[in-house]
Amino acid sequence: MEEKLKSAAIIILLLAGSVVSRAQENVVTLQPDKAKVVISKDIYGHFSEHLGHCIYEGIWVGENSTIPNTRGIRNDVVKALRNMGIPNLRWPGGCFADEYHWKNGIGPRDQRPTMINTNWGGVTEDNSFGTHEFMDLCEQLGCDPVITGNVGSGTVEEMSQWVEYLNSDNVSPMTDLRKKNGREKAWKVKYWGIGNESWGCGGAMSPEHYFDELMQFSNFCRNYNGNDLYRVGVGANVDDYNWTETLMRLWSKKSPWEQRLMNGISLHYYTVCNTWEDKGSATVFTEKDWITTLSKTIKIDELIYKHLAIMDKYDPAHKVGLSVDEWGNWFNVEPGTNPGFLYQQNSLRDAMVAGVNLNIFNSHADRIVMANIAQVINVLQSMILTQKEKIVLTPTYYVFKMYKVHQGATLIPLTVSCRDYTFDGKSVPSINVSASKDKEGRIHITLVNLDPNAANSVTLNLGITQNMNVTGEVITSKNMNDFNDFGVAAKVVPAKFDGFKLNGSQLVVNMPAKSIVSLELVIK
Ligand code: AHR
Q1: Which atom in ligand 1 lies closest to the alpha carbon of residue 200?
Q2: Which of 92, 108, 146, 263 has the fewest Cβ atoms within 10 Å of its own Cβ atom?
Q3: Residue range 235-244, pLDDT digits in tens
Q4: CATH number at residue 301
Q5: Is the per-residue pLDDT at 77 higher than 60?
Q6: Which pLDDT does position 146 carry in this prediction?
Q7: Is the same domain home to 137 and 50?
């Protein structure tokens, strides 16, 4: 059978950090003896922007709301995100970040100035959700804050003072102000973004100009009380390799002292099914849209490889990490909703996209420090949708919950040999996999069967000789565009999975069409 597989392999391509060969049968070979890289929990991060109903209504309802809340923050949302295992939350944007002036969002709420949210619908932002409310949210969620400072329309002094307000325990006008506003002890914010999309909405800058801004802003964001900031510079959009090349080249010419002003750079990549003008519907789509969405999703692997290759050229010691701090599906807004609010439903197709992306990020765990899906509630590929007091947990939510076992676990390298799924002249590998070993020695394998029509039998060579107990979960649904909606029973939810057979060190898994399967292996 091995011979047959070898001869059947037609193309060798890189996918999910492992050599994937196309074959008639699906074989995954794990190399547990080569496991050494820890998957950052922050790869499973999220993003919340002052955009549409993400913050207001999604998270913040105010203390006087009839919706159960703790200091204005929805209890149902906090509970759901905690259960899902949210490791970090990025805020306040997005494009909004480069128009945000943090001092307008502190102090008594009824005295805070308003502003126009020019990026998102031109609505009036009343600043009732600001620094203290966001830090309270992170404490309620038990997650790390990731704050993006304003480079585009802010000042160096303003950003410098925000860091001081948040992180200093010394005596100063900023720390006095924080105490006056009710917070005695400094928070410890570690992840700090120096602007957002400075090549676009964040200031339409050239990479050379942005790099100088980055150095200057970052220089005045100080480390307080032994809490070293992790400063993330604005990285490339999609395949703008020139942006990465320029930043890294300029960085490599700096002294080691200056190089610490850029610890990471970002990458933004959205899966857009059709065109930016007509992105297609989140729920009304064909098989052609299905395979287009998935093949565009897989493209992120190539983008990551290429950006990392450029980074490696200038930074062979890997001092600079990659933060994919915006990713996910971007479809047309739901009919009848504000076009500036980016509200879209979330189907089984979104679950597949989440599963594939997370497997790919895991495979680059040696270089990816963080990733943040856009966005956590009511915007783009959300975890949660809200309608007044009601909430819906989306298919994407359940994938993040299923995959949380990989957070902080050690990546197990693997090779994949699988058949193609082909439709309308397009082909993608039908199987996408990731595996890791957690601190307790349990092995978790997450597999996606991209084929919407056919079940896929996958033979896993585990490389483990001991006796094991295997349990599983699956996410699938009858139709590829099934979604969870308000007022009806959820269709796309995880279920117990026992479609596998263990024979010594080989596990044969029968994956249903269009499914995501997770397996837990416990050595007896
Ligand atoms: O997530 C929506 C927007 O997409 C963000 O504000 C921006 O950074 C990106 O262009």
Answers
A1: 10
A2: 108
A3: 999 999 999 9
A4: 3.20.20.80
A5: yes
A6: 98
A7: yes
Q: Please indicate, yes or no, whether residues 369 and 420 belong to a single structural domain of this protein.
A: no
Known catalytic residue: 326? yes
Residues 164 and 203: beta-carbon distance below 8 Å: no
Of all protein residues, the one whose alpha carbon is nearest to atom 6 of ligand 1 is 94
Same domain as 475, residue 385: no
User: Beta strand pairing status for 88-91 and 45-47?
Assistant: parallel
d(CA 72, CA 102): 19
Q: Is the CB of 93 under 6 A from ligand 1?
A: yes
Is the confidence at residue 498, as pLDDT, over 50?
yes
Q: Ligand 1 within 6 A of 94 CB?
A: yes
Does the Cβ of 145 fall within 6 Å of ligand 1? no
Omega prior to 92 cis, within 30 of 0: yes
Q: Which atom of ligand 1 is nearest to the CA of 119?
A: 6
Angle 36-474-331 from CA coordinates, rounded to 5°: 90
95 lines ligand 1 (CB under 6 A): yes
Instruction: Report the separation in Å between the CA atom of 380 and the middle of ligand 1, taken as the mean of its atom positions.
Output: 10
Ranges of H-type helices in 117-223: 131-141, 156-167, 173-180, 207-219
**Per-residue tokens: 121:** 């619908």
- How many domains is the chain built from? 2
Cα of 34 from ligand 1 centre, angstroms: 38
Q: Is the domain of 394 the same as that of 427? A: no
Section 459-467 average pLDDT: 94
Question: Nearest 5°: CA angle at 431, between 415 and 3?
Answer: 50
At 389-437, the pLDDT tens digits run 999 999 999 999 999 999 999 999 999 999 999 999 999 999 999 999 9
Is 197 catalytic? The answer is: yes
Q: Are residues 441 and 396 in the same domain?
A: no
Whether 211 contacts 246, CB under 8 Å: yes
Spot the catalytic one: 326, 440, 473, 520.
326
Q: Could you say which of 352, 383, 406 is where a domain stops?
A: 406
Closest atom, ligand 1, to C-alpha of 97: 6
296 and 419 co-located in one domain = no
Do 352 and 491 belong to one domain?
no
C-alpha distances out from residue 216 to 45, 151, 220, 233, 254, Å: 27, 10, 7, 12, 13
CATH of the domain at 459: 2.60.40.1180
Short-list 260, 154, 261, CA closest to 198: 154
* Of 374, 390, 406, the domain-final residue: 406
This prediction has a pTM of 0.95
The rounded mean pLDDT for the chain is 95
170 & 298 share domain: yes
**Domain span including residue 119:** 41-406
197 lines ligand 1 (CB under 6 A): yes
